[in-house]
TrEMBL record, chain A:
This protein's encoding gene: hypE
Domain of life according to the entry: Bacteria
InterPro entries referenced in this protein's UniProt entry, alphabetically: HypE (IPR011854), PurM-like_C_dom (IPR010918), PurM-like_C_sf (IPR036676), PurM-like_N (IPR016188), PurM-like_N_sf (IPR036921)
Domain PurM-like C-terminal stretches: 162-313
Lineage: Bacteria, Pseudomonadati, Thermodesulfobacteriota, Desulfuromonadia, Geobacterales
Family: Belongs to the HypE family.
CDD domains noted in UniProt: HypE
Protein name: Hydrogenase expression/formation protein HypE
Biological processes per GO annotation: protein maturation
PurM-like N-terminal domain residues: 38-150
UniProtKB/TrEMBL annotation, chain B:
Gene coding for it: hypF
NCBIfam families for the chain: hypF
BP terms from Gene Ontology: protein maturation
Keywords attached to this entry: Hydrolase, Ligase, Metal-binding, Transferase, Zinc, Zinc-finger
InterPro entries the record matches: Acylphosphatase-like_dom (IPR001792), Acylphosphatase-like_dom_sf (IPR036046), Acylphosphatase_CS (IPR017968), ATPase_NBD (IPR043129), Carbamoyltrans_HypF-like (IPR051060), Carbamoyltransferase_HypF (IPR004421), DHBP_synth_RibB-like_a/b_dom (IPR017945), HypF_C (IPR041440)
Protein name per UniProt: Carbamoyltransferase
SUPFAM superfamilies on file: Actin-like ATPase domain (SSF53067), Acylphosphatase/BLUF domain-like (SSF54975), YrdC/RibB (SSF55821)
Coiled coil region boundaries: none
GO molecular function: acylphosphatase activity; carboxyl- or carbamoyltransferase activity; double-stranded RNA binding; ligase activity; zinc ion binding
Family classification: Belongs to the carbamoyltransferase HypF family.
UniProt enzyme class: ligase
Length: 336, 761
């Protein structure tokens, strides 16, 4: 393998992505020391505390069960802001279109962007459109940037997990990745797996009621729950133990994953958040989630154990402990 | 008396195989004085005594050499008698103290005699030992090897033991673990809750075993689980409590006579069993043996060991028949060796714990081997053999090699020797990774080596690779099958360029595919891939390793395309319409189905196709059971295959699969099919090697990779290669599987690594 070239794996969200980020991108671009890597940057502007983020969407296919690249682009950026506990307000939209792309499909995508923005309560206020020659792009790429306001004074940060904390997820994992995969590969699955793509800012606003007990919020997108927890464990210098049997996984996803040999723990989500909460209020956090329409299947899936070297392990159904590692490259290519 | 003296030089594989202790014992037997030492080329002996005795000694050196030794040259030169008494093992000047740490050694006959003498103060004392025997590697905490640097440090010797220890004429002179019932470690027995059981621990244990109870027994390198092997119900309970495991259990038998009531045991197998290393030896079951079929289901072999430590002697002497002695762990976990950990992890399996207060510092599993081509073939090289070293030519650099992932071992080099560690286990397990870190530190301390470079596999997701990346050392990545090749070269002391036939499970290839049916041309420095089994899809990645029927589907797809399901033999699992469509899509589009040339996966596919097994519960199970089937077959025919042209010869087994599937449908006996398949693979190997020989003029072949644990395939392949005029080399000192990878990595790095030249002053 050639070490001088960008590999597909550099975009997987796994180990290679982190290396690229640390060794090249942050090293070249960041003039301020980076404290951890969170979903959005915290900035202060004219006395206001803001969260600021950007994300590009290159999903293939652009239409898939339950959604398309448009609502994904809105929800994804809204969620990155929400994971800082911010109230998302304004989005920009950058479109890169390939010559020959269908206007009808573009219209459908824009419609779902508008609808997603409306339901998340954000305004799309600026944008840009470029067209590249046929073959120089793949139909449509979308970039969205977002600004949100931070009204709380909490430190919600990937580095804030503490021993004893409980790890919660607001529902079933792996739906998005499998929905996209089955659309892309034309899998004939009759189990009705659809993307979980959704804006989580409403749910987050309610979780803020946990106050100081809410330590970490993260959306397990690329790389899935496994990769996100590895990041948190490393940032917080703690160990995390997951309980295999408590992971909420839809039967359909479980079935497809077992045939395909995929581990749902590494499959992408677009409407899920991981919340790491002080143990005394974990029960309350679970109740808040379960009361919310996006948290009906919420579950406590693990626990932060002693401070150490960022190890994540899973207690398997036969009672053993299996190490959960960050993959070097991708398990699934280009899913979000 | 007519005294004579001889200087004897022996070359070959005579270091790291227990040769010097063997010479020492032999000299004792013939009443000779003199010394033995390692040299750069082998072993040098000076021996003096009666002329007849000296002749007999030379004969015995050749005839009774340790089974792992290979003598390539034997020279005797008369010398001038010098008188003197006693025979000594001299330290080679070059080797520093740490290199002298010995493996754990079976209890010697002298100690055994004392232990069974009611008048002796160590009567029935399970921790008896002397300078010639006892625990070593497992109890050493540091160097120099002195009592304070062992786990015996907490047992101050009583005056009697101390007197022995200081008496140069005593067998226990400077025996670091020396102990007796007054001052040494003690046995204790408790139940699964940790509550002590009243009565004599040994007697109570024997009574419990007789009653069908499962007892966790603390041994030299870790805990074993013991149960009466004749008690079917008790063995079944152990199997059920160890969970979803069909892996064969090892047996402990009283003596060779007892062994011969269970299995076919040749003279050489007998020598391996009675060697000081006390390995588990796999031998073919005797028809109508009394052991519970639950011990090794669907397997033609029993793994048997003889008692190695005093406690095992006491246990087996008190039992009516053989005992199951399996490693104390849940499936896939490392063997328990610390008391509290054992109690926690084994509480759900064992009824009782027979333990003691001498700590095990380094976990060492039992070594496992069997005979192939009349020579030992390791499955696992651990207790008894570690830390013996392998001589590496031209190895100047101090290298740390971290191995692969399954069957993890590490290797350190020093003074031109490679020290391969004990079996560490499957690194997917978090506690095993920790054990790897500890082994690196501990072995480095014992050998007084600070590595200059760390060498690892190319697989980016191996935990051993991740470990290497975290060290603050220059790194060298070595391709998995190149390491296999170098491992076999190193232990056979081969140089130059040759052909490596590496038949293996999975290894990360330079092109990102999963390799495993490889024909390499090269040596330590470099290699070219001159041939491989044709790539097939591995549908579901790791899932296909656990479910061999997936590989069967892949081979069928390769033959019949979308029509594969019509050709599916009836014993493959029934698939729903959705499953069929998913599997077809995976194969057509390569969804989570990497390309592989693995020979292990070809065995899996055929095992499923002929109806041996669709899913496995332990690594390699399908291939092991396919070999067992083939052992029962007589077929002398083989199947067709295709080999593509140079530069890289691809072996296409599609014609074989098509014919095989037709034979299955025609109802042919699966033993015959399995046999013919083995022969086909062997013939394919010879065909490709012959082509490479024509192109390269190389006619030496090394056989390595996990598939060569298969005795039938190894023998067929080597025989056919030799008939075709090749010189064939197999593994005999380290396993052909990934347990030997670290040695190959080290041998390669020791050649390749050139530290940056020091900056000009
Ligand atoms: Fe291998
Ligand atoms: Mg993002
Ligand atoms: Zn002894
Ligand atoms: Zn004593």
């Amino acid at each position: 393998m050639n070490n001088d070239l960008i590999l597909l794996g550099h975009g997987s969200g796994g180990k290679l992505s982190h290396q690229l980020l640390d060794d090249l991108i942050i090293a070249k671009l960041s003039r301020t020391p980076v404290r951890g890597q969170n979903d959005a940057a915290l900035v202060e502007l004219a006395g206001a505390k803001l969260a600021f983020t950007t994300d590009s969407y290159v999903v293939d296919p652009i239409f898939f069960p339950g959604g398309n690249i448009g609502d994904l682009a809105v929800n994804g950026t809204v969620n990155d802001l929400a994971m800082m506990g911010a109230c998302p307000r304004f989005l920009s939209v950058g479109l890169i279109l390939e010559e020959g792309f269908s206007k009808a499909e573009l219209a459908a995508i824009l419609d779902s962007m508008a609808a997603a923005a409306e339901s998340a309560g954000v305004s799309i206020v600026t944008g840009d459109t470029k067209v590249v020659p046929k073959g120089k792009g793949d139909r449509i790429f979308i970039n969205t940037s977002g600004i949100g306001v931070i009204e709380h004074t909490l430190t919600i940060d990937g580095a804030s997990a503490q021993p004893g904390d409980q790890v919660l997820v607001n529902g079933s994992i792996g739906d998005h990745g499998i929905a996209v995969l089955s659309a892309r590969e034309g899998l004939e699955i009759d189990s009705g797996i659809v993307t979980d793509s959704a804006a989580l800012n409403g749910l987050v606003q309610e979780l803020l009621a946990l106050g100081e007990s809410l330590h970490v919020l993260r959306d397990p997108t690329r790389g899935g729950v496994a990769t996100t927890l590895k990041e948190i464990a490393a940032q917080s210098e703690v160990n995390i133990v997951l309980d295999e049997e408590s992971l909420p996984i839809n039967l359909g996803v479980k079935g497809v994953c077992s045939i395909l040999g995929l581990d749902p723990l590494y499959v992408a989500n677009e409407g899920k958040l991981l919340a790491i909460v002080a143990p005394e209020r974990a029960g309350e956090a679970l109740e808040i989630m379960r009361r919310h329409p996006l948290g009906k299947d919420a579950a406590v899936i693990g626990e932060v154990t002693g401070t150490a070297d960022g190890r994540v392990q899973m207690r398997t159904s036969v009672g053993g402990l299996r190490g959960v590692e960050m993959l070097a490259g991708e398990q699934l290519p280009r899913i979000c | 008396m007519n005294r004579k003296r001889a200087s004897i030089e022996i070359e070959g594989i005579v270091q790291g195989v227990g040769f010097r202790p063997f010479v020492y014992r032999l000299a004792g037997r013939f009443g000779l004085s003199g010394w033995v030492r390692n040299t750069g080329r082998g072993v040098q002996i000076e021996a003096e005594g009666g002329g007849e005795e000296l002749d007999a000694f030379c004969q015995a050196l050749k005839n009774e050499a340790p089974p792992l030794a290979v003598i390539s040259a034997f020279r005797v030169v008369p010398a001038i008698p010098q008188g003197g008494t006693g025979f000594t093992i001299e330290q080679s000047a070059k080797v520093k103290s740490g290199g002298q740490v010995s493996p754990d050694c079976e209890v010697c006959d002298d100690c055994l005699a004392e232990m069974s003498d009611p008048a002796n103060r160590r009567y029935r004392y399970p921790f008896i030992n002397c300078t010639n025997c006892g625990p070593r590697y497992s109890i050493i905490t540091g160097i120099p090897y002195d009592r304070p640097a062992t786990t015996m440090a907490s047992f101050p010797m009583c005056p009697e033991c101390l007197a022995e220890y200081h008496d140069p004429m005593n067998r226990r002179f400077h025996a670091q673990p020396n102990a007796c019932p007054v001052c040494g470690p003690q046995l204790s027995l408790c139940d699964a809750a940790g509550t002590p059981v009243a009565g004599d621990p040994l007697d109570e244990t024997l009574a419990a075993l007789a009653a069908g109870k499962i007892v966790a027994v603390k041994g030299v390198g870790g805990y074993h689980l013991a149960v009466d092997a004749l008690n079917e119900e008790a063995v079944a309970r152990l199997r059920q409590r160890k969970k979803r495991d069909e892996k064969p259990f090892a047996l402990l038998a009283t003596d060779l006579d007892a062994v011969r009531r269970l299995v076919h045991c040749s003279e050489l197998e007998g020598r391996l069993l009675t060697g000081v290393e006390r390995p588990i030896v796999l031998m073919r079951k005797l028809e109508g043996n009394p052991v519970s079929p639950q011990v090794a289901p669907r397997n033609g072999w029993f793994g048997i060991m003889l008692p190695g430590n005093p406690l095992q002697h006491l246990l087996i002497q008190g039992c009516a028949g053989p005992l199951v002695m399996t490693s104390g762990n849940l499936s896939d976990e490392p063997i328990a060796h610390l008391d509290q950990d054992a109690l926690e992890r084994l509480a759900s399996i064992a009824d009782l714990f027979l333990t003691h207060n001498r700590e095990i510092h380094t976990r060492t599993d039992d070594s496992v081997l069997r005979l192939s081509l009349g020579e030992p073939l390791f499955f696992r090289r651990s207790r008894g053999y570690v830390p013996r070293s392998v001589m590496l030519q031209q190895a100047e650099a101090n290298v740390l090699a971290v191995g692969a992932e399954l069957k993890g071992t590490i290797c350190l080099t020093r003074d031109g020797r490679g020290y391969l560690s004990q079996h560490i286990g499957d690194l997917k397990n978090a506690s095993t990774l920790q054990s790897l870190e500890e082994t690196v530190a501990h072995l480095g301390r014992l050998l007084e080596v600070t590595p200059e470079v760390v060498v690892h596999d190319l697989h980016p997701d191996y935990l051993s690779t991740g470990f290497a990346e975290k060290l603050d050392l220059p790194r060298l990545g070595v391709q998995h099958h190149h390491a296999h090749l170098a491992s076999c070269m190193a232990e056979n002391h081969l140089e130059g360029e040759l052909i490596g036939v590496i038949l293996d499970g999975t290894g990360y290839g330079e092109d990102g595919a999963i390799w495993g049916g490889e024909f390499l041309l090269g040596g330590y420095e470099s290699f070219e891939r001159r041939g491989h089994f044709k790539y097939l899809r591995l549908p579901g990645g790791d899932a296909a390793v656990k479910e061999p029927f997936r590989m069967a589907l892949s081979t069928l797809y390769d033959c019949f395309g979308a029509g594969l399901f019509q050709k599916m033999p009836a014993h493959l699992p029934e698939l729903s319409a959705m499953e069929r469509s998913l599997f077809l899509k995976m194969l057509e589009r390569g969804i989570n189905s990497p390309l592989t040339s693995s020979c292990g996966r070809l065995f899996d596919a055929v095992a499923a196709l002929v109806g041996v097994r669709n899913r496995i519960s332990y690594e390699g199970q399908a291939a092991i059971e396919l070999e067992a089937q083939a052992e029962g077959g007589r077929a002398v025919w083989s199947y067709p295959f295709l080999v593509s042209d140079a530069p890289c010869h691809q072996v296409d087994f599609a014609p074989m699969i098509a014919a095989l599937v037709a034979d299955v449908a025609a109802g042919l006996d699966r033993s015959e099919l399995a046999r013919a398949f083995h022969r086909t693979v062997a013939e394919a190997v010879v065909e490709v090697c012959s082509r490479i020989r024509r192109e390269s003029c190389r006619d030496r072949v090394v056989l390595s990779g996990g598939v060569f644990q298969n005795r039938l395939l190894t023998e067929e392949t080597a025989t056919l290669l030799n008939q075709a005029g090749f010189t064939t080399y197999c593994h005999r000192l380290v396993p052909p599987n990934d347990g030997g990878i670290a040695l190959g990595q080290a041998a390669i790095a020791a050649r390749r690594w050139r530290p940056d030249p020091p900056e000009a002053a």
